[in-house]
Amino acid sequence: MKIKLSFLAIITSIVIFAQTAPSYYNGIDFTKTGNALKTQLTTLITNTHTVKISYSQLRDELKISDKDPAVPNNILLVYGSQTSGIHQRSRAANPESGWNREHVFAQSLGTPALGQSGAGSDGHHLRPSDIQLNSNRGNLFFADGSGATAYATNGGWFPGDEWKGDIARIIMYTYVRYPTQCLPKNVTKGPFTYSADMADILLKWNAEDPVSAFEIQRNNHFFGVQKNRNPFIDNPYLATVIWGGPKAQNTWPNTILATGEVTNKIISVYPNPVRNNELFINGISNDAEVKIYNLTGQLVQTISNVKNNQKIILKNLPKGVYILKAGELNTKLIID
């Protein structure tokens, strides 16, 4: 999220963006990649989420967490980009009639639906929004676009250039914190070419829109309240290490992290494109479980006990692009 910052906010962001991972992450093995790292982070942010706040309490918390650094008594409204109207960016926190609590991961799209507890009242998830603009978004999937103003596009919703990175990191957090309920494929337009479980646009937005002092402000506030953090605000590069895609900023240059480039360099499929439903996989451990997903994230085939360079037979899958996963590794698969 790119915003104009006061001198104090800039200094704050520099101080908070330490060169090494903070002590909160001491138990994490950052040499891991893919699902191994994601699972560790799920355990951490779940176990440390020891204080659950209510949906009603969240309204008061947002007046603090989302305070406009430049305008006292104002809050910043997600998707906002203008000085007035439904797209207003900064608005008085009181009275409360002009804004409400936006579930960035739409309530109805959870599995099951989120409601107003758990993921539905998590401070790292909900943001203040203009009531009408919130209604305009509804439960539209997130889709790529351009420009400052949020708008509906191709049956989806583009949050605006200022907010797209924030949105990506919120969806990443909700997925890691609530891995069976908040699936990115349920709230984003595909494709899923880098990873079968994280949409390309979220990885793109995470890289294109660096973390701001405002996001850090929110993350620190809800760490104080809930006792857990959003790892992707602390270091957006963790998303690259877990799911691949374009390189995001690495705010911990002095912490040893995996490169985030292991995905397509270690595992390979041949022939690719696949013909006659026959293929070989190189770079996997023997007796691996291989899963094939289409670009909407749907699992279309599982093959157990696959050995390295062993011929395997696919189902009669339609022509197109798929993601083949073996353990923590994945690669693009084309069926011709």
Short description:
This protein is of the alpha+beta class and 336 residues long. It contains ten helices and 14 strands.
Report strand %: 15-25%
Radius of gyration: 21 Å
Overall 3D shape: globular
Distance between the termini: 40 Å
Poorly predicted ranges (pLDDT <50, ≥5 residues)?
2-17, 261-265
Structural class: alpha+beta
Query: What characterizes the major β-sheet?
Result: 4 strands, antiparallel
- Percent of residues in helices: 25-40%
Question: Helical region count?
Answer: 10
Biggest sheet: strand arrangement = 11-10-13-14
Q: Indicate how many domains the architecture comprises.
A: 2
Pfam family, one: Por_Secre_tail
Keywords: Hydrolase, Nuclease, Signal
Protein name: Putative secreted protein (Por secretion system target)
GO molecular function: hydrolase activity; nuclease activity
Question: What would your notes on this structure say?
Answer:
The chain starts with 6 loop residues before the first helix and ends with a strand. Helix content is 28%, strand content 21%. The protein is built from ten helices and 14 strands. The chain has two domains: 23-243, no CATH class; 268-335, Immunoglobulin-like, CATH 2.60.40.
